[in-house]
TrEMBL record:
<keyword id="KW-0496">Mitochondrion</keyword>
<dbReference type="GO" id="GO:0005739">
    <property type="term" value="C:mitochondrion"/>
</dbReference>
<dbReference type="InterPro" id="IPR041698">
    <property type="entry name" value="Methyltransf_25"/>
</dbReference>
<comment type="similarity">
    <text>Belongs to the methyltransferase superfamily.</text>
</comment>
<dbReference type="InterPro" id="IPR051419">
    <property type="entry name" value="Lys/N-term_MeTrsfase_sf"/>
</dbReference>
<dbReference type="Pfam" id="PF13649">
    <property type="entry name" value="Methyltransf_25"/>
</dbReference>
<keyword id="KW-0809">Transit peptide</keyword>
<dbReference type="GO" id="GO:0032259">
    <property type="term" value="P:methylation"/>
</dbReference>
<keyword id="KW-0949">S-adenosyl-L-methionine</keyword>
<protein>
    <recommendedName>
        <fullName>Citrate synthase-lysine N-methyltransferase CSKMT, mitochondrial</fullName>
    </recommendedName>
</protein>
<comment type="function">
    <text>Protein-lysine methyltransferase that selectively trimethylates citrate synthase (CS) in mitochondria. Seems to conduct trimethylation in a highly distributive manner rather than in a processive manner, and thus introduces a single methyl group per binding event.</text>
</comment>
<feature type="domain" description="Methyltransferase">
    <location>
        <begin position="86"/>
        <end position="197"/>
    </location>
</feature>
<dbReference type="InterPro" id="IPR029063">
    <property type="entry name" value="SAM-dependent_MTases_sf"/>
</dbReference>
<keyword id="KW-0808">Transferase</keyword>
<keyword id="KW-0489">Methyltransferase</keyword>
<dbReference type="GO" id="GO:0008168">
    <property type="term" value="F:methyltransferase activity"/>
</dbReference>
C-alpha cells in the first residue's frame, strides 16, 4: 500500500515517494486540476495488473480513531438507527471509505466519487476483496463524478451527513488554476450536506493558511484538530459544518 505526502503549498517540492512512482512527476504538481492527469497517474499504478490502494498522506488506520466517533455523532442514539450517509470526494484508490464501510458499528451508506474512471475501476476491483461490513445494512457505492460539480453527478442538496476530503482540496490548491476550483469544491461539499452535517478536510497545510481559505470559501466556524505527526509531517483535520435548522421557540410563534 503506497502512501504519498504532498509538500505544503508554501513549498514547490513534491513528496519523496512521488518520483519513483511516476516518470512524469515533475509535471504533476502543475496539472493536478486536470482530470486527465489522474487517469495517467492511476493507469501507472495499475501497470502490474493487480490494483492496490494508494493513499495520500496516510491510510485509514491512522485516523480510524477519529472517524468512527465522528460517525457516531451524526445520528442521535436510537434502537434502530437510520444509515449515516457519507460522501468521500476525490477518493482515488484510497482505503479510507473501505475502512469505514468494513468497521463501522453503525449502518453507513458511503458514496465514493472521483473524476478518474481509471481510479474508480481499480477501486471497484479492490472492493470485491473487502470482507463483509460489520453492520449488515451498510452499503458502499462508487461513482465517476467531478467533486466541483456534484450536481452534475445527481447529488442533491442535503444528501449527506458527513463529507470527507483527504487531499483533494490540497491537490487543487497546489496548481495555478486550482484555487477557484478549490472554492467550488468546498461550496459543493457544503451544498450536499444536510443541516447539521460536517465537512472534514484532512491536510498537511498549516492552520494559518487553511482556516482563512475555508472561512472565505465556506463561512465562519472552522475548527481545527491536530491528527498527529505521520512520516515526519504534521497533519490536521479541518471541520466546517452546515448550520442546523433552527427550531422556532414558543415566543417566536406568538
Amino acid at each position: 500500500m503506497a502512501v504519498l505526502m504532498l509538500a505544503p503549498r508554501r513549498g514547490p517540492a513534491l513528496g519523496p515517494l512521488l518520483r519513483p512512482l511516476c516518470s512524469w512527476a515533475d509535471g504533476l504538481l502543475h496539472s493536478m486540476a486536470q482530470p486527465g492527469t489522474w487517469d495517467r497517474f492511476y493507469t501507472q499504478q495499475d501497470t502490474a495488473g493487480t490494483p492496490s490502494h494508494f493513499n495520500w498522506f496516510f491510510d485509514y488506520t491512522a485516523i480510524s480513531g477519529l472517524l468512527l466517533p465522528a460517525l457516531q455523532g451524526c445520528n442521535p442514539p436510537e434502537p434502530n438507527p437510520s444509515p449515516i450517509r457519507v460522501l468521500e470526494v476525490g477518493c482515488g484508490t484510497s482505503d479510507l471509505s473501505l475502512g469505514l464501510y468494513r468497521e463501522s458499528p453503525h449502518p453507513v451508506h458511503i458514496s465514493c466519487v472521483d473524476v478518474s474512471p481509471v481510479a474508480i475501476r481499480s477501486l471497484r476491483r479492490l472492493v470485491e476483496e473487502v470482507p463483509p461490513p460489520r453492520h449488515p445494512l451498510s452499503q458502499l457505492h462508487l461513482h465517476v463524478a467531478d467533486a466541483t460539480d456534484l450536481e452534475g453527478g445527481d447529488f442533491g442538496d442535503g444528501s449527506f451527513h458527513l463529507v470527507l476530503d483527504k487531499g483533494t482540496c490540497d491537490s487543487l490548491l497546489r496548481c495555478a488554476q486550482g484555487p477557484g476550483q478549490a472554492r467550488q469544491l468546498v461550496a459543493e461539499c457544503l451544498r450536499v450536506l444536510c443541516p447539521g452535517g460536517s465537512l472534514l478536510q484532512f491536510s498537511d497545510e498549516d492552520p494559518d493558511a487553511r482556516v482563512p481559505f475555508l472561512e472565505q470559501a465556506g463561512g465562519p466556524g472552522v475548527t481545527v484538530q491536530e491528527v498527529g505527526h505521520i512520516g515526519g509531517m504534521c497533519y490536521y483535520v479541518y471541520t466546517l459544518c452546515r448550520p442546523a435548522l433552527e427550531t422556532p421557540t414558543t415566543g417566536a410563534l406568538n
